[in-house]
Specification:
Blueprint lengths: L1 E8 L4 H5 L12 H13 L7 E4 L3 H14 L3 E3 L16 H8 L1 H8 L16 H18 L4 E6 L1 H8 L17 E7 L3 E2 L3 E2 L4
Helix pairs in contact: 2-3, 4-5, 6-7
Length: 201
């Protein structure tokens, strides 16, 4: 059995543009984000998908809807694909967050090589929790065995935490821009293979 997962980040929001921490705050796509999602749909026109699973948050759901409408395939909402909950830092500007937590902690929090599952922003969700629920969605899709090629519409931090499990660290880790698209392949014999970045904004 093989399953191809195509994981993508949502398009731009006003809070992305303002460099504000979104997390579970439900911010919709802005005009640029809608155009980015349309561009992603065009980029993916020759990639077969059976279905797209999406975070329930507007920015991811709106991105997924543009993809599914272009392909005329089902869209399934999966709340466990939501963004990391950032606790007390949600809604704050990134510069203010750095001032609040300190540069050393911020650099550690942002470091892809730091795999501490208990790391979180004040009052926020731990990395371990994010990985558990994100990987749980993939595992459930595989176990059910209904789909062979699956789109996953999600968020930047959630993607980073999930991709830590599979990324070839010798390549260095790419910036995950709005509508970045990754391909992750699974087969029963070898499990999940290394993930590949297919585009970049």
């Amino acid at each position: 059995m093989e399953v191809d997962f195509f994981l993508f980040r949502h398009g731009q929001t006003d809070w992305n543009l303002e460099q504000r921490c979104q997390g579970s705050t439900d911010i919709p796509l802005n005009h640029t984000g809608i155009e980015q999602a349309k561009g992603l749909a065009e980029f993916m026109k020759d990639i077969h998908l059976d279905v797209v699973f999406s975070s329930h948050l507007k920015r991811a759901h709106e991105t997924a809807k543009i993809i599914t409408e272009s392909k005329k395939i089902p869209l399934i909402v999966e709340k466990d694909l939501r963004e990391t909950f950032f606790g007390e830092m949600e809604g704050k500007f990134m510069t203010d967050i750095v001032s609040h937590v300190g540069e050393d902690f911020w650099n550690s929090f942002r470091d892809f090589e730091n795999t501490d599952p208990n790391l979180s922003l004040p009052g926020g969700e731990t990395r371990g929790s994010v990985v558990e629920r994100m990987s749980g969605v993939l595992d459930k899709i595989i176990l059910e065995g209904q789909y062979k090629s699956v789109g996953i519409s999600t968020h930047g931090s959630a993607l980073v935490n999930l991709l830590r499990l599979f990324w070839d660290r010798s390549q260095g880790f790419p910036y995950i821009g709005n509508c970045s698209l990754f391909h992750l392949k699974y087969n029963r014999e070898s499990g999940f293979k290394e993930v590949t970045l297919l585009n970049q904004d």
